[in-house]
Amino acid sequence: MINPYKSKLSDNQFQRQSETRVFEKPDSKSQENDERLDDNASEEKGMSWLESFKEWWRSDEPIEDFETYLASLTFALLLRFLIVEPRYIPSLSMYPTFDVGDQLAVEKVTKRIRPLNRNEVVVFNPPETFKQFVGESNKKAKEALIKRIVAVEGDIAKVTGGKLYINGVMQDEPFTAEEAAYEFGPVKVPPGCVLVLGDNRNHSLDGHIW
After folding, report:
1. In the chain, where does DSSP find H-type helix?
2. How far apart, in whole angstroms, are the C-alpha atoms of residue 208 and residue 210?
3. Within 10 A of 78 (CB to CB), how many other CB atoms are there?
4. Phi first, then psi: what are they for 150, rounded to 5°?
5. DSSP reduced 3-state for 142
6. Contact indicator for 162, 133 with CB cutoff of 8 Å
7. For 58-84, what is each residue's pLDDT tens digit?
8. Which of 59, 89, 103, 204 gives 93 a disulfide partner, CB atoms 3.0 to 4.6 angstroms apart?
9. Which of 7, 28, 93, 204 is flagged as catalytic?
């Protein structure tokens, strides 16, 4: 059944429901004006950035910044070439003291103010005898070497029975990986030279070969 009281709509209700909403179509001219305003804002933003750059360039700041960067770069280069140099370990020749991938800072000042001593670890460019042994075209001929000094100028070095002897005295070397499986010497270290060996005695291209 239909409730007659609820099925009837008042004139006012009918009139409100039958009303048609009309939306005003945007004016094309107003859209063009908005687009022009956006373009002008972008141009003004670009011009403001350009003007700020020109103002900065005409000031003393560029010179001050350049001087700061130049001083920092100069200091870094001096530190790198004269005082300390970063290095990484590419092989097992110094195992167990250094493992593959270990990183270290090589200090360059001490060797200029005092002579080298036994048992010191040194980093140096390959000598000609090493280059000839591995071949000039081998990339190892261009890589720096890291070894341990076992004998200095005037020392007589010998390896026998797996042990190192310097001037007839057997050396205590707890840093080596194993006893040497080769015989070497005796040899006398010439003036201005040192004898270097790797701590991993049987897996090192060092002074006993070249």
Report:
1. 4-7, 11-17, 28-58, 61-78, 110-113, 128-134
2. 6
3. 10
4. -110, -20
5. helix
6. no
7. 777 777 778 888 888 888 888 777 788
8. 204
9. 93
Phi–psi pair at 20, nearest 5 degrees:
-110, 125
Phi, psi at residue 169, to the nearest 5°?
A: -105, 125
Structure pTM? 0.64
**Encoded amino acid at 24, one letter:** E
Catalytic annotation present for 93: yes
Higher pLDDT, 118 or 47: 118
Please state the three-class secondary structure of 90-114 as a single string. CCCCCCCCCCCCCEEEEECCHHHHC
Give yes or no for a contact between 133 and 118, defined as CB atoms under 8 angstroms apart: no
Entry field: residues in the chain:
210
- Planar angle of CA 82, 87, 88, nearest 5 degrees: 175
Strands in 195-197's sheet, in edge-to-edge order, are: 121-124, 145-151, 195-197
